[in-house]
Each structure stands twice: as structure tokens, then as C-alpha cells.
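hey so u asked for the seq, here:
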Amino acid sequence: MPTMRAAYASSFDTDNPLAALTVGDRPEPAHPYDDWVTVQVRASSLNHHDLWSLRGVGLTRDQLPMILGCDAVGTDPDGNEVVIYPVVPTAGDPRGVSILSEHFPGTLAERVAVPRVNLIPLPAGLSATDAACLPTAWLTAWRMLTTKGRIDDAESVLVQGAGGGVATAAVALAVGHGKRVYATSRDAGKRERIAALGATALEPGARLPERVDVVIETVGAATFDHSLKSAAPLARIVVSGATAGHEPKINLRRVFAMQLEILGTSMGTPDELTDLLAFCAEHEVRPVVDSVVPFSKVEDAFARLHSGDVFGKVVLDHTA
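ran it, C-alpha cells below
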């Protein structure tokens, strides 16, 4: 049976997810349906979703081994450069869909199979390593700001916990939209890097010079009261994560008195990914890249992500 090199979950380890990672040969991609095609991967990027998979979140033991990875850019069977939209219709999932590496093998391999409709042309001027950062974290941030946050109707944005993938993307995209952007981080070094992106960097809980129209929340309980207090009348607080607690106390009097909207979201649609790619290409907005690692050293990339010291995306170059 033909094989290819891949990084996959071979077991689960809650305390040390890196111990559950294996790099080795796996069978060439199978096509579960006639409309699927095989893409030669040129670049991919890591997400915390990959570490959670190694811990056993979202996977069961009977799904092992599972090739990891949601994001990738590659070449389709016709030789076109394409960005892979990672959400796949999945009959057995209660959501009706899943992300690559949940039910179907992911992108951390030499090749990956996906529905042909999930292939989006790579815009001119956008590199494969940059575009490989966009389909998960950056797409989530884009949807938070545009579809949910209605950033075109806003003047100012607060991003909580910048430094993480979605939050850092939200900072860069909001600055790219020409908005006044405030961003919080506990880490002084990350605050310096946030400021370099064009935002006003603040410590968590700091008083803002103004109330903002849109708040980007991926932190949760640790920052939610500050988000409420920082929101202007009619503001939108958009939530896509809860890394520091999923059950915050909420002052409902502030919610109804200020007529605030609290909106939940995750990921985005193929059209939104197309819009995000076009925006980045046209406005020369580029993903914040922590490091680019050859695919041959994928274990080092996972160790970098697991360290917690990353700022931006860890990218894998499959051509190196």
C-alpha cells in the first residue's frame, strides 16, 4: 500500500500531549465520496486544536491513529494553488459538520483529501506560508469582527488576551480596517509586539480611554467583567473561546441598560474565507507568524506551540 509522511495522534495524553504525537508513514489519502480530491500540501499551520486532539478532546480511541491539522495550502490535481477550507460535511457528527482531523484525516501530511468545493484559489501576492495561517484562527477572527461584530459600523475595538492565535489575528485585522484598537495581555513582551501591530496595548483590566463598539472575547471569565465595563452603548461582545473560564458572572443590568449584544461564533463560511483572503491580499495584511519550521521537524513545531511562548502562528513548510 502506498504511504506518505504524516504527523498523527497515536494515543492520548492529558498531561503531556507531545507524548501522544507520532511522525511516520500513513496510507495515502482515501476518497470517501466521489467529489473528493487529493491536494499536495505545500504549507500548513498548527492550532491549539491539535494539542487538544492529542489530549483526547474531540476524538475517541477507535478513531486513532488520526492525522492532525486543520489548515493548509497546496496544489490541486489540476496544478492550481489552493487554500483548503477545513470544515467538512459529516453525517455522523451532531453538528452535521466537522473540522479536518476530527472525523477525516487532517493536513499535517504530504497529501490530504478534501471535497473539491473546499478548495479556494490562493490570491496573487499571498504566500503559501502566510495563507496557511488563515483558515481556522484568522477565519474565526474575521467572522467575529465582520459578520458578528459589524466592524464597518464601529470606530473602536477591544481585543482581550492578545498573543493567542485568534486574538492576535483580530488585532491585525481590526488595525487593517482602520479602527482604533485596544488589546490586553498579561505579558509585557507581548504587549510590546501588540503595540508594534498598531494597537494600544494594555494590562488586563486597565481602564480604556473610551468605551468601544466591538469587544473580541476568547478569554472568558477572567476578562468578561472588564469587557462589559469597556463596552459602549449598543456594543457587540463577540465570544469564540473561554481559555480562562467558561462561566463568568454577568451583570445583566449593564447588558440591558447599555443594550449590549453578546454573540457567540466559531470558524466561518467558505465565502468568508474567500473575503478574508482577498482582504489580506488587497490591504497587504499579513498573518503574525511566530516561526516557520520545515515539515521534517514537525515535532519541534509542536514543542514550540506547547511551550506557550508563541506570538502568532507556528507554520510548517512542506517544501523544505
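The chain has a mean pLDDT of 96. The longest strand covers residues 36-45.
lmk if thats what u needed
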